[in-house]
Amino acid sequence: MGLIEAQGLHFSYGDLMVLEDITFSIEQGQMVTIIGPNGGGKTTLLLLALGLLQPSRGQLLIKGKKPVAMQRIMGYVPQFSLFDPHFPITVYDVVLMGRLSRPFGFYSKADHGAVDQALATVGLCELARRPFSELSGGQRQRVLIARALVGQPEILLLDEPTANVDASIGEHLNELLRRLNQQLTILLVTHDTAFVANFTSRIFCINRSLAEHPARGMDTGTAADSLYGTAVRAVRHDVHLETHSHVDQQGSCRHE
Amino acid sequence: MSDFIAILFSNTMPFIRYAFLAGLLASAAFGIVGSLVVVKRISYIAGAISHAALGGIGGALYLQYHFGWAWVTPIGGAIVSALLAGGIISFVNLRFKQREDTIIGIIWAVGMATGLLFLAKTPGYVDPMSYLFGNILIIGKADLVLIVLLDLVVLVVTVLFYNHFVAVSFDEPFAKVRGLKTGFYQGLLIILTAVTVVLMTTLVGIVMVIALLTIPAAVAGLMTRQLKFMMPVAALTCMVFTSGGLALSYAWDVPSGAVIILLASASYLSLLAGKQVIGRLRQGRRT
């Protein structure tokens, strides 16, 4: 059995069906990129895996259990653009939040040690005392990854990590995730083609229902163009849809 | 100014000394709870709760008069109605988030309306204005003890749950994935706000409570970059505003509450403007 298993998963907000009959199985150590148009349900799928939303029908299990019971093995990296940009907090304290577990009280010595380690992993030790609000987009994203890592997760779940981040930083992030993928299973929601083409092991295209596109393993060379063909075109098509709305409905991402 | 200091230590007008002490003591609770309210952006909730308290005050006075229930005190009524308001808001926040601002607006208005209705049907001289602006000059010794108790409660709860309040305020979904019962901490925060607001409303009035909860914290927010420093700075700022306002109101012979509020808001606005100007100048130098 896979690490994450979805069986006939449905989700709707009231009458609005967002996800329909999703079935998949993700093995340990895989890197799954979830792409699809805005409003297609990719973030919803991530929230279901995190146990923050409950399926209307069907099930999604992590190691055979409900996600709510498995949250301690999950590292969640939300979209930072949703945060209050003026919240008075330091980088160090943001990361420390990832060690929160007791119902009240303080952090332990082990918690502080883990923070230093996580900051070293993402290469931000020298910024530990800086206010979170003063960092660049790429730096904030790495802080949030450190916060997810500090709880020693087995699965890392990221929501649009390259939103509001310029391309060179996206490259940097890519490298970091490639490194983390050696130990962790990664689930990543994005509309960014660079992430898809590079090192992902599987591509899920979500537009209410799921279609999986072929992707090469981590050790792919540059000659993979023919194999990437479908996936890359599909993503470009999505970007198109967001900016110009309904231009070309013929793409491998449409599969109702 | 020296007149004011002399008055504080003489026994001719003890009420000024009490008002001064009340201002200093209340600043601790205002600074801590105010900082939480400002970073969580729930000052609107504090407003609704303080107005709901008026409903409880009016109800208590009505019951006292018509049924002779002496044990139903205005402060008791205020606490019951504020906790009720806080409970409703927490529940709505949990279940029907998108309706929250509507519900808050309704509670705000209904609290005022029922309060006024009860007061109108309660003979005797009760001036609704005194509940709006309060009167810091009628504070007695027993009230000071109450404020100290409030400070203790606020301090203990905040120290125990500080990390959790930060997590829930900064990023609620993440806190949930960490296994935190975020609804509990949100509710606790609202109840802590309600208790502070209510107690202070009966002492210094609704308008002053909102002013002292938000303005010192906003000033501290401009000067600090961490919540744990923002709280003490807000408390100190609040002390400066209340004692400075009292001194000015004594010197000019004008209502103390209004002077305190105007002093606080003028300070905030000038600090904000100063910060903007400095920011512009720095940017100008860089380019």
| Terminal-residue CA separation of chain B | 47 Å
Total discrete domains of chain B: 1
- Rough outline of chain B: globular
What is the annotated CATH architecture of chain B? Answer: Orthogonal Bundle
- CATH fold descriptor of chain B: ABC transporter involved in vitamin B12 uptake, BtuC
Please give the CATH class of chain B. Mainly Alpha
Radius of gyration of chain A: 18 Å
Structure annotation, total helices of chain A: 7
Estimated helix fraction of chain A = 25-40%
Most extensive chain-chain interface:
A-B, 32 and 27 residues
The main pleated sheet of chain B reads as: none
Any idea what the CATH superfamily of chain B is called? ABC transporter involved in vitamin B12 uptake, BtuC
| Strand tally of chain B | 0
Q: Report the total helices of chain B.
A: 12
Number of β-strand runs of chain A: 9
**Assembly annotation:** heterodimer
Shape of chain A: globular
Characterize the structure shown:
The complex is a heterodimer of chains A (256) and B (287). Chain A is an alpha/beta fold and 256 residues long. Chain A has helices spanning 42-50, 91-96, 109-121, 137-149, 167-180, 193-199, 225-244, and strands at 4-13, 16-26, 31-35, 57-62, 74-77, 155-159, 185-189, 202-207, 209-213. By secondary structure, chain B is mainly α. Chain B starts with a helix and ends with a helix. In chain B, helix 3 crosses helix 4 and helix 10 (206-223) packs parallel to helix 12 (256-286). Chain B has one domain: ABC transporter involved in vitamin B12 uptake, BtuC (Orthogonal Bundle), CATH 1.10.3470. Chain B has twelve helices and no strands. The model of chain B has no long low-confidence stretch (mean pLDDT 89). Chain A binds chain B through residues 47, 50-52, 71-72, 74, 76, 78, 83-84, 86-90, 93-94, 96-98, 100-101, 103-107, 131, 133, 147, 151, and chain B through 39, 41, 160-161, 163-164, 166-167, 169-171, 173-181, 221, 224-227, 229-230.
Q: Could you provide a short overview of the structure?
A:
Chain A has 256 residues and is of the alpha/beta class. Chain A is 32% helix and 22% strand.
